[in-house]
Write a structure and sequence with these properties.
Jelly Rolls; 2 domains; two-stranded antiparallel sheet; 14 helices; 15 strands
Length: 495
Amino acid sequence: MFTRREVLISGMGLAALAGLSTGVGGGVRASEGRVRHEVGSPEGKAMLELYREAVKLMRDEAKFPRHDPRSWKFQANIHWVHPDDDSEEALQAIFSTTGLSPDEAEKVLRHRALAIGATSRTWSTCQHVDAVEYYFLGWHRLYLWHFEQIVSSLVGQDFALPYWDYGKNGSSEHRALPIEFRESIGGSQAANPLWYEHRNPEMNKENGAGEMDPADVSPSAAFQSAGLYLPDTRKGFNSLLNTSPHGNVHVAIGGPGEDPGMGTVPTAGRDPVFWVHHCNIDRLWEIWRRSEKGKADETTFRDEWKGATFAFSDPMGELSEMEAARALDLSSLSYDYDDLAAVVTPVGAAAASGGKIIAHLASSVPMEIVGRGGAASLEKSTAIGGFDTSQAKAASVELEVRARGNPGDRFDVYLAFPKQAQFKEKEVRVGRFNVFGATTKRDPGGATFFFSLDASNALKDIIERGLDGVTVRVSPATKQTSSPIYLDDLKLVLN
């Protein structure tokens, strides 16, 4: 129950909570029938205006001090603590009780416990901590849901997060940052609460803004998967969607310098575009969940999700604990999407699962990749026996990559075929990967990532040319890497 002593600002209190009710499993539940719309639709644009108003309020530290769970930076720190706040000195400043009344001091200490307490910690609780990121989709769904309730309470209206469908219709215009996030207000971009300085400068231009590559936004590989989790985790929907479009979009929008904004886990949550990006990731997951494949697959892990509980803040700035399994019941969260059309994908690398590993790295590993990248020649593996490459139906390139820091870029993988008597030299891009999350994974040897990239677009060349002299080239997408990655293993798999 909420008590009258937890009062929202400027008389918003009880009126702002109209339409909210206690939810099953803790927290607050939205009114029935809340629908999330695409940012470019009339409904989505209306929600963006409410969102703009809320962001401005949440950033106003006179109304929402840094210790308040409804403040902008507190909410961002739930995803991961920003480096500016990641010190004892910073924590002392944020949660200072100097000069406060006993009641106010008690509130600040309660908020500190909600942030970093031993039993109810909310800060740095996103799931980018290991190679599997098991609850990646579920945790973010509940995070978005709680944030949505806070925004609704602040603007005093029913609010549904809009989503940014950057893959819509395969159109380049949708791969540019929505204008609401880069337009000027009163002649200044900085006056726009949805603008953020720590972005890729090309993406952040008000006019003539850059756009992402189609490879950055494609969920195709994820929707070819056979399950959310698979024995080879790199081939599960959870992992593949995490790579593309999730991580690719993060890194594409992220800026240069010590604060890359969307480009790293600890800094991403302060960019307002974070929430509309993750709303689209949530929508893509829901499309998967409602497919026949997704429905059948979910029965294999649903019970396991009942054992995990995550902590967030409710609209009153109090603790809200929610079981991971709530993320598997959208009706209990009382929202839906305006468009859940099936994602159409080509037949590709999913078919290569369990295929023959027919080529390995010939160069010594690990191979450092930085600057313009590096290339590794392939040699036929002795394990292929009598496998006839001319009969292959699918191909994939599988990589094991380590990173100790933030490279600030995505990486493209190419198969390069040498000139032969009847063939010209040729290079085929088979995919793109990223190491978003490298700075938060808890491995002293460096964060390890596993990728499986559909190489079926190179299958015709593999069949016609063979593999003699073929190399795999791994190169930063924009040549702007600031920290190396290490290629520990690479395989070419045919089926």
